[in-house]
Amino acid sequence: MTASPRAASDPAAGAPAGRTAQIVSPDPDERTRDRVLSAVLERGPVSAAELGDGLGFTPAAMRRHLDALWQDGLIEVKQARSSATGAGRPARRYVLSQRGQAKMGNDYLDIATAALAQLGAAAGPEAIEEFARLRFSGMEERYRPLVEAAGPDLEARARALAAALSADGFVGSTKTVGLPQGRGTRVLPAGRPVMLSVQLCQGHCPIQGLASAFPAFCEQETGVFARLLGVDVRRLSTLAAGGHVCTTHIPLGRTTAVPAPGTPDASGPAAPPAEPAAASPSNPATLSIHQQGRP
Known about the structure:
alpha+beta, Arc Repressor Mutant, subunit A, 2 domains, two-stranded antiparallel ribbon
């Protein structure tokens, strides 16, 4: 009698006498490399040492997994100098490649791209722009109460926006840039105006390929950020255009530098830090660039 197909293929159906049924388990290295890929997505550009510390891997194991991901074309190596001094040997930092971005979840992208191409051919580019506007209007409606709950502080609103983006798979984060802080950095002379800003980063774009073919998606998303934050923002880089991350510049405004305690000012001896003056029309150095009416 011929054995049933189930008996021949299903280990649960039993095995011939004297033999043990074997269940094939997923490759442990493959599961580990998926973890590494996810960590690069969330933290990139990131060094091997930072990844090893975060994942608990030895340097040798970390290099082995990164080399494998690089050979598979899933990650890229960026050379970056120290942000504080710009000196020294460039460090190797890792980011997802376009293939790696696709592996992390651009499902049905080809179908959507073809459908939008046909829409544009039939109804013109305005139809694609309207489609993108409608898609992001839903995002704006969902994000608005989350951003508003952060209050009037622009940095807090940007952090709330980054958290909302992360919840939707965009891997959002923020970084404040401007006046150097910390030991060993150059301190600007007191009284010199400086410009502070927040960089809102998105490490992943679920519609990257679609946005590459149709820039209207990036343009509409940038408009949503500007309306939610209440300031003019500017895109510095996008994944769709080949960047390793989407970066949006959010100006915080103009402020006045004060020297750190005990640090000599360029014009005289050390002086205690001055209390910042309240913003007012008579003191424009403390007003934001939007309150000053500057671009």
